[in-house]
Write a sequence for this structure.
């Protein structure tokens, strides 16, 4: 954990939202038609016990289980076609900007404008997310070129903690003096990894991109900025959230798009194990700064499941947390992997007063938890 006095600030932040969205009702209509078609086409095998029938879904179940009402998607075409059941994202040539770099660039420009910075002011670019659309060259270096940034860039993949882990890397570079301003971008293009044919997970993910500028306080000229008081991260190996998608499928003759290659989780185990980890993690971090949980004005928590957020908020405060104290954005954005807590930050921070304390926290596969304690300047 880093909690030494520093002059590192968050000076800019940006949120880019795709133009397309899918409601629970739209999603369920398409999925149920797919399930009916599958069950009819495989009626004999299902009756013989060789296949399992596809269960039907409903919008009320989705909202009750997750808090999600709709989600933004990078591309909508194909996602609601019962014969396809996945978005169609058109291929691009190597001389064209990649889809993920396009998302990242859009969010980055918003963050740079907020920070009153241009490309010449940035020394390093980090693209951190749950999935990148290719292994190399790095998406971050592509974005670096698109923005006209000098210096260096690299990608980071730490599942749903990617954003906060990258913010900690930015903090460390600034305190070490290896950079004067760092641009952290989280282009979460998660819809292609969603299993649109699975009743228990077809509703989970949405697409989004967020970006954050971190710099030294003495160079900050933005109208809104935040001192970074502390960063903390922890990991603990678990198979309860996993995806086996990878290039080894080519060599082991497995189905590259088999069930285990998508996002899979043991939801109840994750809930039971991660919630107390997050509460202990945050409470210990704040205590090390001499801050009581009740002194925090705003909790920008990871956005995976409304029930997790509500329980964590209650454990941290000893009572139910209000929407103002711990904003939940799942209803409109769904689970956006590592970007969730920063979406909440982008949407729920302008009302804070000088000196107000806030916590940005994400948690996910690994297990991994990353958090920052910040103060409005």
């Amino acid at each position: 954990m880093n909690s030494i006095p520093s002059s590192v600030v968050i000076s800019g932040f940006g949120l880019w939202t795709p133009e397309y969205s899918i409601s629970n009702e739209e999603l369920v209509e398409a999925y149920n038609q797919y399930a009916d078609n599958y069950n009819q086409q495989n009626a004999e095998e299902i009756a013989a016990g060789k296949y399992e029938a596809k269960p039907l879904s409903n919008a009320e179940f989705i909202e009750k289980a997750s808090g999600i009402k709709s989600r933004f998607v990078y591309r909508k075409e194909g996602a609601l076609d019962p014969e396809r059941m996945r978005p169609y994202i058109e291929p691009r040539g190597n001389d064209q900007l990649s889809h993920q770099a396009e998302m990242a660039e859009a969010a980055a420009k918003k963050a740079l404008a907020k920070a009153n910075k241009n490309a010449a002011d940035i020394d390093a670019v980090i693209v951190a997310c749950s999935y990148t659309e290719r292994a190399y060259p790095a998406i971050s270096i592509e974005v670096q070129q698109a923005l006209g940034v000098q210096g260096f860039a690299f990608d980071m993949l730490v599942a749903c903690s990617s954003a906060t882990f990258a913010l900690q890397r930015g903090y460390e570079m600034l305190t070490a003096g290896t950079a004067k301003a760092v641009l952290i971008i989280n282009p979460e293009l998660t819809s292609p990894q969603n299993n649109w044919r699975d009743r228990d997970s077809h509703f989970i993910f949405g697409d989004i991109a967020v970006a954050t500028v971190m710099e030294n306080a003495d160079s900050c000229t933005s109208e809104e900025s935040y001192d970074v008081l502390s960063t903390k991260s922890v990991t603990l190996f678990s198979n309860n959230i996993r995806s086996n998608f990878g290039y080894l499928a080519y060599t082991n003759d497995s189905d590259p798009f088999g069930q285990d290659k998508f996002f899979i989780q043991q939801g109840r185990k994750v809930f039971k194990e991660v919630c107390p980890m997050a509460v202990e993690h945050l409470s210990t971090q704040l205590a090390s700064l001499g801050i009581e949980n009740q002194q925090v004005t705003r909790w920008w928590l990871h956005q995976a499941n409304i029930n997790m957020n509500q329980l964590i908020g209650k454990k941290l405060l000893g009572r139910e947390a209000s929407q103002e104290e711990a904003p939940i954005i799942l209803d409109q954005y769904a689970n956006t992997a590592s970007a969730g807590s920063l979406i909440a930050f982008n949407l729920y921070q302008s009302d804070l007063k000088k000196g107000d304390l806030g916590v940005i926290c994400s948690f996910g596969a690994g297990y991994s938890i990353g958090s920052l304690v910040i103060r409005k300047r």
